Amino acid sequence: MDPFTLKPNLLKNILIRCLSFGVLVFAVRFAFLVAIRGQSCVADDDFCLFNVPHVYSVAVKSEKYIDYYASVFQDLIAEGYLSPKSNSLCIETLTGEEVHALKRIGVSESIGISKKASPPLILRGQAWKQPFKGNTFDFEFSTGLERSGFPVEFSSEICRTLKPGGFLVVHVTAKDAYSLQSFLDLFNCLKWIRSRETDGPDSSTTIQEIVMKKERQFSPLNGNSGDKCSVPELKREIIRNSEPLIKQEPLKPWLILKSNIRNIKYLTSMVDISFKRKYVYVDVGARSYGSSIGSWFKKQYPKQNKNFEIYAIEADKAFHEEYKMKKSVKLLPYAAWIRNETLFFEITRDPRKKHTMQKGRGMGRIHPVQSSVNYVKDVDKIQGFDIAEWLKSVVSERDFVVMKMDVEGAEFHLMPRLIDTGAICLIDEVFLECHYNRWQRCCPGERSPKYQNTYAQCLDLFNSLRAKGILVHQWW
After folding, report:
1. CA-CA distance, 200 to 179, in Å (whole number)?
2. pTM for the predicted model, two decimal places
3. Could you tell me the CA-to-CA distances from 45 to 42, 52, 56, 111, 169 in Å, in that order?
């Protein structure tokens, strides 16, 4: 065969192979950009075959929002909390207006994170799991804390990624002093600088702008020691706005105290509880599920759509079986007490009502001594536990804690223990039934011999709790 006819065929094959390789390179590049990076080619990108200017792909709601945030950031620059040289992060930015605004006013080292990436302005990341090394940013900004669902993790990540001396600015809809303080308590690494009300991007909304600074040296959240609870003015105001205590002993307590429940001003009806780590309800002396958990707390207590952890503390074995079917309730089958020790658990019944003894179960009391001989007794040995130490191991000041206590006179032991250990400071709201030698419904003119304390002593207990900043209600 003529060698001159082979050469064109060889060149043709080489050309076809080169073109095929080029098509393959383009296909791989396209697949990489679409499937992995989700963006078009960026100028100066090492993988770009063509150096073309990048057009931001962020979907912007409107120029109005960029103008709003640009104004906010210019004010922060004027106040010294932000500078054009600040390495800045916008957290939970949905469509990037905040990042656009920072770049517009000259803060070029700005980036945002959101659940959905939109490079190059917004990287994929969670507020509570940021894709950055520690001590990275001089300035962090967020309007999304209320959307995060993990406020404590959110605050921990900010403490990790914000440089010492850096500033955090947050826009929240804190509705009252209580929710503002709850928000500040989340950040144990930051020092509060200022907060002020300002207009939101929509003129119809008002927001709180909070500025905090990361301290170079910081310690964990301060706890309360001894019986000294912190009683800021906001707690005093809440107590002033609550229902008044019944100062005069009721002649018909079975009517007056029970009807007083309708007058209770719940804490959650007065303040916003959004900025809490978790929500806990502790029923001390719970008895059956329907006694108060099912009939009252589940149905009537205003929870602001929060999911509460529920603990039922009940020593009476007669009620334990029922709780095995209640997966949403954690049963502590012990007696709440002032220390860990074995106790006598006594079921008392009035002997004048012997005909009812088989129909129901008497009320249980715990104590280390024998009860009055005027009562028929069923006595068991049970394990008591230190409720104060248990409470401190389960909740913190960052949590919202509600407690109902109905312990047949043991409140005169338990409450002083909670106060002495400072555990009472962890409780936001208490519903307390105080047991005293009340007038009897069955026998006009006669007081119950079951309890030795007086109504005046109960009133002193309620007043002392409110004086310590604890919102306590008279329970029936």
Report:
1. 18
2. 0.76
3. 5, 10, 15, 18, 33
